[in-house]
Amino acid sequence: MSREDILGAWHSFLTDSKRRSPHTVRAYTSAAQRIIVAKDISSFAEVASLEAHDLRAHLASRRAEGLANTSAARELSALKAFIAFARSESGDPDPSAPRVRGPRLKKGLPRPITPDEAVNIADMVDDTASDDWVGARDRAVLLLMYGSGLRIAEALSLNGGDVPLGETLQVTGKGGKQRVVPLLPIVREAVSEYASACPYPLAPKEPLFRGAKGGALSQGMVQKAMAKARRALGLPDTATPHALRHSFATHLLSAGADLRSLQELLGHASLGSTQIYTKVDAAGLLENYRSAHPRAGKG
Question: What are the residue numbers of the active site?
């Protein structure tokens, strides 16, 4: 059996049997390909024989290449699923994956979620959802919050008439105040994947994001999904859905956005509400200075 055969079977299993989202299929297939090449694997039996120490060594190599903790945790999840699939295909009576604990972040002061962590949280809710369309749904909601700075209530207020999404979206925020926010391609793609997978008709005036029984999705379900992903990725308790909106603001400020523009994007009634992010950004700069400057703290 060739490597292409192994990857083809894995891809088909994820797509046809598990009905995973296109994004998850790409990520999980890429993870499988990397370990196949790294370990020079050419059969399912060789994949099935991989043990915990093999995974640890592979992840250590990936970390040496610059892979972040959250990305490493997601790659581990993908590889465990791949090995379990290979063991099942090889007729193993116990097709469970090796037990390997994912990387943990050091505890510290609350901080904004990094871009890498934000995307990995969104991906992890997709990977670990009970149903594939539910995973696509939760991923879309979280990316709307991080990619466009929406409040959770604003994301859940969208209706079927809002899709397909364009490059911008008109949002009604607190006090009925309307604003226009940009939509990144990754956000538009995520919402499109969810809309295609949703088992309920998305009528123009009906909620876009649906619960398991077809009603409007509640904020509590989004919070629960993110908490599960946060634990899997080893992130602190401060990594909540609302933290995604805070991170959107902090990252834009770091990239040079002015406060007035940021105020408009966030829908803040006053500039004072937006100015808190200058303190967050300054705190981050000071932390980087102290950890990187050769004379920091030396008097």
Answer: 151, 174, 242, 245, 268, 277
